[in-house]
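Lab meeting, item 3. Inverse folding demo.
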């Protein structure tokens, strides 16, 4: 038994799939204590879009620490915060016509930003319930957990999870059924038993839920539905944002204007804990300190986040490179599907948030375990852990993508050979 198994709580999870001790990380690579190198297709579950220890961000942080820059200052004004506000506004919000949105710094994790959004929506509208979707994931603190679909996570609550109505996500009942029309009918019927909700909380691409994608059309209809029934639209862009789908926000080219947007994971750019709620100005009805927290706005994260925005988002070249790499990964994945399971495997997702859906979780987990043996860190997602999910750093090189896809190809060959599904299909 190693010290982790001996002294750390059984709640640990990712380490069970990758049971080695990691010592170093750079870009898209991890190194373990034995010196074995791995390509990282998990990347902090989407926290390391700019890779591990990016040299530009690292230098900005080292300089800040060396100059005794403020590390912790509650929510007081600091130069680091000032620089982040200015940079994010100038390079992200203004160019996207979102200059009037305000930034609220919540506690440092994604679930903190979701809690703040749900609380504010209830406060502003005077309504209690929030609509969230099948297979949605929004975090594990009680408010956000109520909005999360996953039964394994919900089971840990120990109290009733209330204040949320679950509705079917885009294509939940196949591509013929309009889930928007279903929701509209439920909300329009005073005897449906569904009270008018304060807000709708939605991921544009469901990260943990298995890379289910909402189309621009569905998102536009959802926005319209929100306006019709006086509900606020909250986009949870914690995983799909910060460039993962090719643009900074996942909804950018859809022509919608969410009332609130949650960001975390890759927002600091460096893997530092950091979360933010973007909100339309008129919704800012908080009283000073009403939603409080000791770690709101992490100054080290302000430094690296500002440096990341400055380095990657000053023009369109980074977004273009994400598009091209996403295409490259998708093509390689299509080839894997054709070779190892044209009738049972398929590619799903958007941008660099894509994966291969397997007939069951056992196959997907076998693929990931084979891949790990060959030096690729990759995880599953989805209701049955059936999707092998690529979340590699967006800065990964083409050569690293090809190497990872060669490994994935071998892993699928091995997993599909042993599976009864292909034998039955073949
Ligand atoms: C990861 C995630 C969260 C929760 O973030 P934590 O930092 O784990 O609390 C919320 N929403 C989405 C979409 C996520 O992917």
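The presenter then showed the designed sequence:
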């Amino acid at each position: 038994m190693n010290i982790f198994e001996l002294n750390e709580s059984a709640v640990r999870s990712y380490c069970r799939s990758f049971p080695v001790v990691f010592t170093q990380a750079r870009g898209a690579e991890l190194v373990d204590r034995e010196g074995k190198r791995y390509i990282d297709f998990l990347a902090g579950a989407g926290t390391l879009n700019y890779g591990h220890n990016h040299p530009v961000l690292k230098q900005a942080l080292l300089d800040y620490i060396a100059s005794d820059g403020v590390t912790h200052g509650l929510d007081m004004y600091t130069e680091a915060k000032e620089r982040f506000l200015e940079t994010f506004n100038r390079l992200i919000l203004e160019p996207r016509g979102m200059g009037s949105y305000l930034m609220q710094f919540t506690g440092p994790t994604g679930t903190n930003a979701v809690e703040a959004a749900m609380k504010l929506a209830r406060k502003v509208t005077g309504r209690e319930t929030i609509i969230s979707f099948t297979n949605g994931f929004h975090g594990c603190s009680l408010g956000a957990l109520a909005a999360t679909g996953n039964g394994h996570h919900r089971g840990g609550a120990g109290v009733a999870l209330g204040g949320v109505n679950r509705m079917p996500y885009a294509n939940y009942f196949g591509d013929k059924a309009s889930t928007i029309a279903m929701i509209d009918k439920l909300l329009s019927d005073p005897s449906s038993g569904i009270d008018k909700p304060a807000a709708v909380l939605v991921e544009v691409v469901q990260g943990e839920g298995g890379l289910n994608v909402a189309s621009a059309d569905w998102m536009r209809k959802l926005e319209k539905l929100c306006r019709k029934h006086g509900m606020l639209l909250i986009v949870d862009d914690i995983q799909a944002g910060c460039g993962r789908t090719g643009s900074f926000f996942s909804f950018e080219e859809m022509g919608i204007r969410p009332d609130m947007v949650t960001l975390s994971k890759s927002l600091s750019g460096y893997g530092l804990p950091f979360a933010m709620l973007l909100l339309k100005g008129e919704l800012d009805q908080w009283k000073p300190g009403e939603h409080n927290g000791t770690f709101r706005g992490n100054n080290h994260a302000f430094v690296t986040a500002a440096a990341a925005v400055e380095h990657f988002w000053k023009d369109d070249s980074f977004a273009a490179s994400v598009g091209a790499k996403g295409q490259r990964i998708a093509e390689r994945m299509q080839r894997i599907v054709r070779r190892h399971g044209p009738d049972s495997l398929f590619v799903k997702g958007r941008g660099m948030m894509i994966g291969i859906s397997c007939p069951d979780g056992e196959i997907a987990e076998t693929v990931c375990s084979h891949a790990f043996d060959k030096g690729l860190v990759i995880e599953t997602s989805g209701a049955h852990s059936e999707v092998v999910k690529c979340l590699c750093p967006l800065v990964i090189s083409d050569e690293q993508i090809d190497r990872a896809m060669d490994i994935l190809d071998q892993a699928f060959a091995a997993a599909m050979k042993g599976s009864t599904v292909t034998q039955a299909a073949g």
